[in-house]
């Protein structure tokens, strides 16, 4: 790792560490405190690694403009994910997550989403209490596993076991719950390795169904299977299963939790909820993006591959290779300008901020998040009218437990306890998907 500092030398946050290296009660608060002491740009030396954090408007704009071949987001994400995931899941893959969104695949995902919606509605029943974050995460699992994990993977006991395994392997923990990474490392990823073995065993059953001719699959799962057709049986099965696992983990995101927040926000804003329920797709997109903006808790980082000039507005630093340039979304998205602490879907136009000057340095990141929202799974939890105007229809009560949001702890100051709303009779809970290919 590098020993040289950026030139000129930025302020150094002595005594500040990151939770995968040292015990930190609240990583966001620790970085916020360092920012208060040192300003918008400063160095954190944590364990063997060196970070240049930036929060100035020009600095964050420069962060998003860094070229991938000089300061790599892909490598930085991999370095984060390997703290959580067993190394073998990255080795020797033949079908990669960038295979997810071929145009013909998207059509099949929409079919699978419709089926997942029907099963989700059936599971909800006519009334009762539901944890929205469990609901949205489970829905994302069901659609994804039906799309690329083979026949039977989104149904019954197999589905429940796969959900448990993938929840254990959730790579987003590395970004939004870095405080647990030290425990993961101390256990040598024991739970994660066991979960991966469960996935291999369950995907093997789907492969056997395909091999026996019980079903055919010309979509992504079929291509994954074909890619391993020349290998010995044991190697073939494990290779297929690990390809499936990496693709599904890549499709998982803390945006599933943000989707839960979108539902909570709609419940708290009945006028918006009713418009979405009546089919206002444009408003639904805006609500999803706005809820995502407010709920984001992730670290964003770039691994510097070659010395790079990095302009923070007041100073331009020469950052050595081997460093990581980083920013923290919860310290930007709700506080960088007046009014950003309020939920306001009208601040969005299509997939971008209507007034970039209101958040001038975050719009590039929001484009990245918008792409993930639009093509990585269902993004809006909304109501579909199934006879709301029938006076004989029963009223449906939905209690949304939001006391322990999975990735939005900074919002618990305005949320807590149980969010309860009485919805119009017959309102059926649906999820809208925007899985069409992203268009700028």
In total, how many beta strands?
Answer: 14
Oligomeric state as shown: single chain
Order of helices and strands: HEEHEHHEHHHHHHHHHHEEEEEEHEEEE
Task: Average the pLDDT over all residues and give the rounded result.
Answer: 77
* Classification by helices and strands: alpha+beta
How many distinct folded domains? 3
Alpha plus pi helix count? 15
Uncertain spans:
360-440
N-C termini distance:
38 Å
- Overall geometric form: globular
Which percent range fits the helix content?
A: 40-55%
Report the biggest beta sheet as strand number plus sense, adding barrel if it closes: 5 strands, mixed
Radius of gyration: 22 Å
Strand order of the largest sheet: 1-2-8-5-3
The share of residues in extended strands comes to 5-15%
What does this structure look like?
43% of the residues lie in helices and 15% in strands. With 440 residues, it is an alpha+beta fold. A hairpin with a 2-residue loop joins strand 1 and strand 2. It folds into three domains: 1-84 and 298-331, no CATH class; 90-119 and 148-252, no CATH class; 255-296 and 333-440, no CATH class. The chain has helices spanning 27-38, 57-65, 73-81, 103-124, 132-148, 156-168, 173-176, 181-186, 190-211, 220-227, 233-251, 255-268, 270-277, 281-295, 363-375, and strands spanning 41-46, 49-54, 71-72, 128-130, 299-304, 308-311, 316-319, 324-328, 348-349, 352-353, 380-385, 396-401, 418-423, 427-432. The strands form five sheets. A five-stranded mixed sheet has the order 1-2-8-5-3. A three-stranded mixed sheet has the order 4-12-13. It has 15 helices and 14 strands. It is globular and about 65 Å long. Residues 360-440 have low confidence and may be disordered.
């Amino acid at each position: 790792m590098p020993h040289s500092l950026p030139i000129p030398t930025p302020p150094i946050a002595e005594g500040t560490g990151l939770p995968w290296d040292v015990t930190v009660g609240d990583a966001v608060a620790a970085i916020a405190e360092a920012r208060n002491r040192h300003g918008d740009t400063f160095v954190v030396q944590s364990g063997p690694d060196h970070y240049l954090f930036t929060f100035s408007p020009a600095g964050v704009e420069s962060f998003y403009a860094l070229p991938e071949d000089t300061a790599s987001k892909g490598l930085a994400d991999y370095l984060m994910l390997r703290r959580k995931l067993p190394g073998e899941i990255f080795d020797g893959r033949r079908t990669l997550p960038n295979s997810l969104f071929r145009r013909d695949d998207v059509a099949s995902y929409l079919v699978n989403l419709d089926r997942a919606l029907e099963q989700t509605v059936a599971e909800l029943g006519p009334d009762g209490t539901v944890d929205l974050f469990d609901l949205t995460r489970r829905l994302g699992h069901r659609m994804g596993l039906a799309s690329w994990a083979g026949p039977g993977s989104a149904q019954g006991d197999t589905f429940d076991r796969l959900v448990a395994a993938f929840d254990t392997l959730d790579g987003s923990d590395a970004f939004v719950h870095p405080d647990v990474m030290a425990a993961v490392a101390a256990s040598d990823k024991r739970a994660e390795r066991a979960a991966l073995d469960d996935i291999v065993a369950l995907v093997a059953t789907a492969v056997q169904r395909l091999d026996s001719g019980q079903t055919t699959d010309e979509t992504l799962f079929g291509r994954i299977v074909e890619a391993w057709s020349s290998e010995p049986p044991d190697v073939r099965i494990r290779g297929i299963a690990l390809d499936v696992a990496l693709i599904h983990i890549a499709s998982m995101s803390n945006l599933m939790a943000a989707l839960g927040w979108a539902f909570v926000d709609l419940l708290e804003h009945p006028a918006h909820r009713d418009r979405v329920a009546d089919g206002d797709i444009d408003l639904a997109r805006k609500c999803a993006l706005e809820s995502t903006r407010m709920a984001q808790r992730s670290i964003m980082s770039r691994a510097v591959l070659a010395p790079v000039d990095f302009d923070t507005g007041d100073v331009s630093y020469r950052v050595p290779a081997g460093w990581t340039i980083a920013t923290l979304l919860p310290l930007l998205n709700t506080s960088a300008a007046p009014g950003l602490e309020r939920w306001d879907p009208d601040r969005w136009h299509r997939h971008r901020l209507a007034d970039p000057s209101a958040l001038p340095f975050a719009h590039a990141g929001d484009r990245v998040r918008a792409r993930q929202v639009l093509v990585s799974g269902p993004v809006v939890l909304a109501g579909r009218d199934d006879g709301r105007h029938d006076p004989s229809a029963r009223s449906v009560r939905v209690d949304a437990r939001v006391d322990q949001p999975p990735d939005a702890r900074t919002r618990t100051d305005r949320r807590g306890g149980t969010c309860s709303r009485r919805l119009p009779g017959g309102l059926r809970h649906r999820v809208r998907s925007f899985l069409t290919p992203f268009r700028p």
